[in-house]
């Protein structure tokens, strides 16, 4: 009866055109009604007040602000130009710059779509003017853009940690090695592609001397200081995520007005855009909090475990089923929505099967990364199609991202066989 009410409420609200936050919250209230009757509203209000007054959500606001300031101050474009000479002599050339800058931008923004948009808006026109293959350019941007969701600070990991009461600092540490390995794997694929296929990169380009390359690299000092100021105090327990992100935002404000391109008008636009994004996330989080409370009290995760283990007691089969489930829903929803919708069910289920909560958070993040480049929704695909002025269709970009999709999927197998890739660093430092 409970599962019937759950499915009926979700489907009914979705058909009615309700937003995701309303779907999650409405479903949670219906389930709470089965438990406490008229007291469901009071219970929901109490849990909302408790969770929303935590500092965790404030850190999301500040990390969104850091990403927006980094882009609007012109530092994203400057970082791209500074790193370009470093990869000129490597097979794949500036396509590697796309991956490197996406990784660095992800280390200050924490989002995937914003990473793809910020780096893509600078890289795509530049590389097309240099006669790079447009499909290789867009594929590298879409694939590498997903790393913004995994490499800390990650909004996805913050939300997972807040919902499941898991250490955010440990989650950040758990995302470092997988993020770096994915970036290196993307670069290896780009090098192989450029060596085996004609026309991926131009045959002739301006060459930089070693001295010129070093002078260019010196221009990324603001980014390096920003990354150190945000992540250093956090990892060594000197600051909370909110304090680290706030310091990063203050640093960018000063730098943006003094050596960057930030103006008062741009700052106002940044603040407006940041609040709109944050408001949308908070509304969905509120619904997820109510649903999580209802799911926990009603024991739905335990019921799901009992049902699945009665079919197959092997935890591996449970994991495979969940991976297939995420690959399917990734075609229909954006990553953050999937995370908030499924974590209250999936995380307790996997924990009961013996998987580590830190490892689960990284796994879910990688799975929703795959969804970011999976049509028909695939937000990164639409963002880059827009940057390309619709000269390249979403379907064509999706085809170009298939190798990156497969690399991410192979990465899931890798961290499953070798979970210490995720867990070693958190266990050593914290």
Automatic annotation (TrEMBL):
Keyword rRNA-binding in record: no
UniProt protein name: TRAP transporter large permease protein
Family: Belongs to the TRAP transporter large permease family.
Bilayer-spanning residue ranges: 12-35, 55-71, 135-160, 172-196, 217-238, 244-264, 276-295, 315-341, 353-374, 402-425
Gene Ontology terms: cellular component: plasma membrane
Pfam families assigned: DctM
Subunit details: The complex comprises the extracytoplasmic solute receptor protein and the two transmembrane proteins.
Any one GO MF annotation of this record: transmembrane transporter activity
Keywords assigned: Cell inner membrane, Cell membrane, Membrane, Transmembrane, Transmembrane helix, Transport
InterPro entries membership: DctM, TRAP_DctM
Cited function: Part of the tripartite ATP-independent periplasmic (TRAP) transport system.
Residues of the TRAP C4-dicarboxylate transport system permease DctM subunit domain: 10-421
